[in-house]
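A note from the maintainers: we've had questions about how concatenated examples are separated. There is no special marker in the raw files; a new sequence line simply starts the next protein. For clarity in this README we add a label.
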Amino acid sequence: MLKNIIRRYVTVNNIVKMQRRLDVQQPEVRDLLQQNVLDICKVFERNNYEIRLIGGCVRDMLVKKQCKDIDLSTTATPDQMIAIFKKNSIRYIETGLQHGTLTVHFNGSDYEITTLRIDVETYGRAAKVEFTNDWRLDAERRDLTVNAMSLDVEGNLYDYFDGEKDLQLGKVRFVGNPNSRIREDYLRILRYFRFYGKISPSAENHENETLTVIEELAPGLRHISVERVWMEVSKIMVGNLAPHLLQLMYRLNVASNIGLPDCQESYFQEFEKVWSRSRGSAIQPVCLISTLVDNENQASELCLKWKVSNFERSLCCFIVSNRNVKGTDEQPLKAYQDIIVRKNGNQIVEMVKQLLLYQGKIEESRVIETWNIPKFPVNGADLKKMGVKPGPDFGKLMNSLKELWIESDFTLTKELLKEEFKRLQK
């Protein structure tokens, strides 16, 4: 009897510690508990299943950031969810049924809903799971304390591991033992750096124990797919505190285990310079990565290693080849406009825009984006009429005329170019 009373007392106090009621009239809470979400949750509650908002959307709401995606968790199993959706004519997709995840399409929006689960066995990023109805056990399997919070439709915040306190302090802590969490999924090392950039105000907020574990387990990153590595690294590069985090990744041997090249101090300085002057712009992560390589071959090799998109690889090589291009005081954009006209490709304007962002020329990048590209007035048919026969000299002559047109600041007309052609033939 006494044991039951003590157990009940401990349980009640644990609930009080982990839960607080938010004001649902606060704009950020109201935005999260939007009508679609409330309607979905009512369907579950009518069928006697618990359901809460979970993870990133709750974290972002607490720091007054607008969240991109709203994810939910429930005590209903996947089969029970399917039965509910069919009964209520709700469209759904079996996006991750083996892990208990379905995506609901509701009033034009998508919401992922996942059954509470525990990891029975882990295999890197894969895991064998069992479903549960214990919210704390589900929270224990999550990576970071700030991602382990949940919120019900009444505005009750459930925080089993002091995630809200860590948010307020700008602390990034793993749930439970850092060694165990990382061994379950080595990608969590990179997620540590990404979330540190998201929530920490300074470079002084690391816990030494966590950094020691990261350094010890960094070789495990070699088992992670390069696509996943690039997905995390690309977010770290453009995030807050990126120069500090990049150097820390090198110091802890994380960089060498994800394929980043050896770096000299001058590379870090260049990275920080580009990162600082491009803040607030839409600079692409590969532009920042390009600061860590010397030439096009190295840029291409790194991009191929990480399997970035063809455009990203081309952009990285383009930046490396053209980062020293400069305009003049009289014509600050002429050199960049010349590149656009010479290359004449669908993506060249975006590449030149990114080059300007790399150089910190934010306003100029906006101008170049809307520049009305002049059209070279001479084409192949014109050359044939002038008596030039197809062959090796045909392209050379066309390029020569085009260079004259470019040097004239795009002012030479077709007639003037014909006169230049006659002069070239003499």
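[label: protein 2]
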Amino acid sequence: MKITGEADLRVNRYKDLGYSTFFNARTGFFARVPEPGKREPFWSPHGPELMDISITNWCDKGCVFCYKSSTRHGSHMALADYKRVIDEAAGMGTFQVALGGGNPNQHPDFIEILDYTWSKGIVPNYTTNGRGLTDDILAATLRNCGAVAVSAYPPYRETAETIRLLTGNSIKTNVHFIIDSESVNTAIDWLREPPEFLTGINALIFLNYKPSGRKVFEEKLLRHSDRLDEFFELATSTDVKLKVGFDACCVSGVFARTNASTALVDACDAGRFSLYVAEDMKVYPCSFQSGLVEGDMLSDDRSLLDIWHRSENVRSFRRYFASDRCGGCSHRTTCMNGCPLFDDLVVCGNR
């Protein structure tokens, strides 16, 4: 691996693997570029390019759909443990970390967490419900973070206030909107006529509702909506006034229900280019797996790179994505069979 860079552009060249990665720390631009005659890699042996880190399971909202079941009694990741994760991530060439929880900005060491991450050459981003955003945290966010995602919850008053606070402080702001069989109707309304409080955001990101958390509402799974074609066609239309994005759990719908270029949409990269570390230092390919299996413990005897290469759990994700589960589907090579955890998230209509 050879690392070069100038100003905010960071370039990792993996000559032995036949590709390079390019990342702009300020704009968020990222590209994985194979050398002439080579194909884009299926996974990155050097380590994850992105890490999802839960630095706390503390939250005072108590939302019934929270997949982490976070409460006021949730625990925080120790600062020393976090620094160890970041040190190892930097050694593997990780570009970005997504900090979550719980509500991550209410971690008692949050400002030091942001400063330390940037000092190691890694860009921190985080998702917030809007509570606990002090002036000092906003200043630390502006100097360190690539972007902040605001979780959108009805009736959206708190969401609107948080967006105004962040954009008013010149912080790049995305909105995370969970789409299910009911909220997809609101999503369509927003796409047709965006509410005023979305003015100034960077992008509206749609997250497929997962059947996990304190309560599971099977009837809310997105696949039960009769407006899927309408939603995906509208969300990928060039006429929409907002920049729109999707989480990996939506890509089956994007591939099968739209004419969007496959070059612009990635399948799930869990265990291939991304990794998740929970606040208790257990490691998983995907954050939604943390309540389903035990996970691999990061310890004095086991590093992140060791887990990345040798964990049977992580390798099982790679096998799933490489398998032929969907048979002769024309989208299999780009969708990679959809979600390894929740079959009900597949919304292509082909299975």
